[in-house]
Fold this protein.
Amino acid sequence: MIQCGTGLFFCVADILHPFSASKETSAYIASRGWQSKPVLADHDVFTTAVSSHLQRPFYNLRGGHENTFFRNPPDRSVSRLKPFLEKYSGGDFLILLTYPPPASLPPGIRLEKTFPAGMVPYEKYYLLTVSPAAFPSPDINSRCLLLRPILREPAAPE
C-alpha cells in the first residue's frame, strides 16, 4: 500500500512539475516536423529520454553510434563525429545538448530553443539547427573542427 501511495505521489508530482524536459523537447521537435531529421546528441545518458519519446535513435557522440538507450563508452573524441558527418554530409540536422552552447555560433548553426523545465539538472535541453550553410568546406575534418567548440563536456550540476 505504501508503494502504491508513493508511486501515485510521484506521478502527480511529475505532472505538476516535470522531472525532465524530455517530453516537452520531443513534442517541440515533432511539432516542427523534424522528427525524422538526423540528431547529433550529447550527453546520451540524458538525451535518450528525448529519443525514446520520439521512438527513434539519435547519434550519440560519446558512444559513437545511433541508439535509443544508453551504453557507457570508454571515451569521446572528434573522430566519433566523422561517421555521423559522413552519413549526413548534407549538413541538415539537429544537435541536442544537455549544456548551453557557446554564445557565438558559426553561421548556419543556431540555437533554436532552450528547454529549461525539469528538476533534474542535466535534463535541461538545448536544441540547435544546422543548415548546409554551416559547412562551406566538404572536408570532414574541417567540419569536425567547426563543431568541436559546440560539443564540450558539461559543467557540474548547480
